Amino acid sequence: MDKRKTKDLLYEEVARIGKAVSSPKRLELLDILAQGEKTVEALAAEAGIDIKLASAHLKVLKAAHLVMAERDGRFIAYRLSGMDVSALWVNLRTVAEEHLVELKVALEGIFSAPEKLDTETRRSLMNKARRGEVIVIDVRPAAEYGSGHLPFARSMPLDEIRQRIKELPADKDIVAYCRGPFCMMSAEAVELLKKHGYRAQKITDGTAEWLAAGLPLAES
Amino acid sequence: MDKRKTKDLLYEEVARIGKAVSSPKRLELLDILAQGEKTVEALAAEAGIDIKLASAHLKVLKAAHLVMAERDGRFIAYRLSGMDVSALWVNLRTVAEEHLVELKVALEGIFSAPEKLDTETRRSLMNKARRGEVIVIDVRPAAEYGSGHLPFARSMPLDEIRQRIKELPADKDIVAYCRGPFCMMSAEAVELLKKHGYRAQKITDGTAEWLAAGLPLAES
DNA sequence: CAAATATTCCAACGAATATTGGAATATGTC
DNA sequence: GACATATTCCAATATTCGTTGGAATATTTG
């Protein structure tokens, strides 16, 4: 048993995970899959790439056992193979935000600062939402809300806000969230709400960030 | 401002971190650097590669801002640019162990099961060590012990155990640790100690794993 | 069983990466 | 200031990877 060789083997194995997360497209696919299971078609559409390319990337992710495929009727649905995978994505993104100045300034340009929460603020938000002092809305597609969402949040997909805007109380603060820091749906929702006279703000958290902070999701 | 383009940019940035950790050699360098700062020469020797190659890999890691270089006399010392980097390494390795069957069986072949600790066991070990009920020895080189070690552990480098073995009490349980799950120094140490009649066992934790579990290190 | 559709496989090309050898740079020592 | 040494830069090669086009597979529906 050669010490050097076994070591090489071990690091080689871990590097397979690293290789899987070394492509922007694959990272985006993981980010999307963190919202719940999706078909290849849906993934390709969300990521803005060809179905064949999406399939190829998914194959790589599957080879690294980061995602699982399951046939569901006529379609094949992919999903993350564990919550630790979504934690890894959050961890990677956090390191990137911390250490890559370019990403930091890009994010600060797109979003403003106070939208990032610490664990204490998250708890406080959850309590306020439970007491009804603020309205937390999940602006992702309804299916994603269905596969897990922030506690005490109600589903209000971006596409439907215009029609359903009267459901929201005009005298309460509204907090919108979507898929995470790289998703722009909550920003659009807030813009729309403000235009209609609501007091609205966004947070950068998605379900993955919420989980990574050690807080629970709601299922129904 | 094109939504698609900004998204591509963001994922591209995170992928730079992914690319940095997509090579086995770079992962090994990170693992070594998690033990404290090292010169290029020392890193190359530890990883068993040419100095030029080590320099090239370090350049990639530096470009991703995962490591920092600092001139120290005639040498250039590299170190991790933050504790979150070592946490990322632990996270990657954990996902790999969990999802890559090959790695799991390889590790189970090399190590036996009960050496992996949960947080509760870690705390209990720390308490026993404080009360002197067990002797925890750090078998890494003394310099690595110096840049941070488990609480109540004493330094007993693998090279020196033969000469210094009389320092250890024969009637106490001895627990050895080294750099982490991929390091084999503690296994060698235990073999040596058992041969001399000591009750010794190893744990797979290194300082990075200890930190990732939320437990403190000792400095002096 | 045949048609329709979703997904994957295969082939091929250009781009990016790992590795090695030789030269160049920079720091400390005399 | 010249020399020794550690480290990096540059060039070249083999290999791998991302992407796209066309064909093949598998499942549902009629």
Could you please describe the fold and organization of this structure?
Two copies of one chain form a homodimer. The model of chain A has no long low-confidence stretch (mean pLDDT 89). Chain A contains eleven helices and seven strands. With 220 residues, the first copy, chain A, is α/β, with parallel strands linked by helices. In chain A, 52% of the residues lie in helices and 14% in strands. Chain A has helices at 3-20, 24-33, 40-47, 51-63, 83-99, 101-110, 119-130, 142-146, 161-164, 185-195, 207-212, and strands spanning 38-39, 67-72, 75-80, 134-138, 153-155, 173-177, 200-202. In chain A, the strands form two sheets. A four-stranded parallel sheet of chain A has the order 5-4-6-7, with helices on both faces. In chain A, strands 1-3-2 form a three-stranded antiparallel sheet. The N and C termini of chain A lie far apart (52 Å). Chains A and B meet through helix 1, helix 2, helix 5 and helix 6 of A and helix 1, helix 2, helix 5 and helix 6 of B. The first copy, chain A, binds a DNA duplex (30 and 30 nucleotides) through residues 19, 23, 25, 39-41, 49-53, 55-57, 59-60, 71, 73-76.
Q: Provide mean pLDDT of chain A, rounded.
A: 89
DSSP summary, beta strand count of chain A: 7
Biggest contact:
A-B, 51 and 51 residues
User: What pattern of helices and strands is seen along the backbone of chain A?
Assistant: HHEHHEEHHHEHEHEHEH
> Which value, in Å, is the CA radius of gyration of chain A?
19 Å
Strand content of chain A: 5-15%
Main sheet: strands, sense, barrel of chain A: 4 strands, parallel
Helix count, DSSP H or I runs of 4 or more residues of chain A: 11
Cα distance spanning the termini of chain A: 52 Å
Task: Order the strands across the largest sheet of chain A as they lie in space.
Answer: 5-4-6-7
Per the principal axes of the C-alpha atoms, what is the gross shape of chain A?
globular
Poorly predicted regions of chain A:
none
Secondary structure category of chain A:
alpha/beta
Secondary structure: helix percent of chain A = 40-55%
Oligomer: homodimer
